[in-house]
Design a protein that fits this description.
Layout lengths: L1 H9 L4 E11 L4 E12 L4 H11 L13 H6 E5 L2 H5 L3 H8 L7 E4 L2 E5 L13 E5 L2 E4 L4
Antiparallel strand pairs: 1-2, 2-3, 4-5, 5-7, 6-7
Helix pairs in contact: 1-2
Amino acid sequence: MKQMLLTFCCSYQEKHEVITGVVITDGQQEIAFADLTEVWFHELTPDQVRFYVEKYQPYDKAGAYAIQEWIGVIGIKSIHGDFYNVMGLPVSRVVRALEQFPPNLTILNATGPLQHQKPCLSPAGGGAARSYLGNNYYLDGGLQ
């Protein structure tokens, strides 16, 4: 973890790429794509990296950091592409893909059902978060 982040502080002029693969299918139609976002960091000191790892414990992060946390706020120099792709899901592109399916479709993904249904102002059952994706689409479980 620290080694990956220390790599960013030593090679801050190089970009790294975040690629998220998405497949949406209803058994008859399938849409597959990969979304690419390029990320550049400012030079980070080893003390900044240690602070981030100790304070935020980003052990469950695929790239060893969360762009929406402190390290992203102070460390990201620029990105080219979708910010939400770096967070984990290129939501706007997923919504555009979902609009190509019939309105009564329920799609399963790694985090649970992605449903096209009537608007709902309250959270999903069991207290789980429900994220509104637009055009009456909801992502149960919320974006992580």
